[in-house]
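note to self: the first set is below, dont mix up w the second
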Amino acid sequence: MNSFGTRRCGGPVAAGPPGGFAMLPWLLMGLGAVANLVKGETPNPWIGALGVLAFNTLYLAVVFRAFHDAKRDSAVTRGALVALAVLTFCLAAGYGGDWLLFFPLLGLAVGAVVRGRLLMRVVVPLCVAAGAVAVWRDGWVAISVVYGTFLSSMVTAVVLKLSGTVAELRAAREELARSAVEQERLRFSRDLHDLLGHTLSVIVVKAEAARRLGERDMRAALTQMTDIEAVGRQALTEIREAVTGYREGSLTAELARARDTLTTAGIAPLVRLSGPLLEPEAETLLGWVVRESVTNVVRHSGASRCEIALTGAADHARLTVTDDGRGPRPSTAPPGSPGSGLRGLSERLAAAGGTLESGPAPRGGFRVTAEVPVAVVA
């Protein structure tokens, strides 16, 4: 690939930042001086030929090092640039004419190496000195050399600055894309944990109930099995919605499922609701809290009673889920324990400006308290 990009396998490839090869065609500006040497119109041609060879060598060394940050700011590069400037003034003052075109080439090298505020401090004196030499050698007609030197310096510096900015923006865009992928993976893992954790718990509870009822009440057992089928179908739908990222849980539906799950597990549910209706975003967040908390109660608490209380105010809603079970599990619980789900919920609520607290209840058992900012629906 060259410095301006190419095509690979028939498809376009984004152009990259210019490199040292992009500066090579400008050496054609020195062909006039070479032609003078070939025609024998230059005094002391061997000195002129050595001067052209030295100029091209220094120019190539400077411009190729200019596109590497570490090398561009090194003493070697700055020394080569100073040597190039001295040689340019010597050749221009000694021969004049076409040899004055080495000044714009020097300007290209200066624009490639010198950056920032130092650029104008170097370019302005360079142009003044180049203009003085040009006027001394060829009169005021050669004043265009000043314009060419200034323009080549500034345009090169601006192009390289823009190229650097584009490279930084491209890197920032790639970093944002990676971050978006990571966030989507995190969202999906949280949703999958919450969905499957609750659903599988319900299926296990209802399957145990069906097994116990099967020996004495087949009709009731069939009812539980029908519920298992319905829960499984609902889980498939919710997983598809979670994959696409469009799932918006209904708090009312979650509370109804929670009441049914607790009852099936032999835990007495008590649901208390007060306050105005909530916006869908707040309902979705609190629905996740209900789902995760009830799943933990069924799977880990050994409770006989669970209370779910929702209160709403003008600027926030608070949800508490309290059970009378054995209390929180030890902190040494392995990954995948209830703590993992609660940590995920805490991060989810924090991203929305809410909070989640969990710990022992005042009268024993376990309590989860969630608060989210809301704009109530009238």
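second set (the one i keep forgetting abt)
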Amino acid sequence: MKRSSPARPSNAKPPAPAPQSAAAGGQALAVLARIETLWSSLGPVGQRIASFIANHPREVVHMSVSEVAERTGSSEGSVVGLCKNLGATGFQQVKIALAQEIVRPVQFIHEDLDPQDTSAAVIRKIFQSNIQTLHDTQASLDAAALERAVKLLREAERIEIYGIGSSATIAEDAHYRMLRIGLNAKVVVDSHVQAICASLTDERVAVLTISHSGSTHETVTATRLAKEAGASTVCITNFGKSPLQAFADVVLFTMARETHFRTEAMTSRLAQLAIIDVLIACLALSDYDTAVRTLRQTFDVLSIKRY
């Protein structure tokens, strides 16, 4: 019988902009959302600890790691291990993040679409889910990782962008946006061409791979081939463990939940596009004069396409 995810606090309100954590260089953590994402991959002890944290966040903020271990019938090492699985440096960072979520409560969207839903209900559920995804992704995006990604992409002589299926359109958008700011980039969305191109890269090339699951065989293979050929690799994927991460120099995580009716939903693509937006802005700012000059030049070129 499938174990359901831990219950969430019922006093949720619409999300407010997430404050920045003082821990981990200013990175905030969407702890409760990460627990839900990682739930199925946790063992029995990890699920017991995660369930306790999710259902008693106000208590956990005032508890020591020893007290949590005692209340969950586990060890201090298991509690710390779970915190690290959630992307935190330790139990203290989880407590800080939980305190922020209590002060500015998160609206957890875990309801699926129902055949009896009215149009108004569908609008509410989908828009709230998309808003929540952007909120969670913002809270989890690591500024230091983003800076490393910008450095790798900016220093490369050429950038190759890989994406398959629903991620292909995101890859094509990233390609277009990079061209507009003067970067030497190309996009590859055919799996066979991906494998060929990846095998022909070298240390002068940076590869940007976009995959929600991080488990798509074609994109994992292409990223592995590029990494083995000496290219730098940056990946945009959903938070959690996935094969793709083993071949990434830098990982930028989205936080998108999929439901029965909404697998590969717009939520994941919105989160990917938001990260691409941030990435392009940072790349442009890293060479501001060139980016502005190229944007003006390409705007003039595209003006002939308009009436």
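remember for set 2: Confidence is low (pLDDT under 50) at residues 1-27, 106-110.
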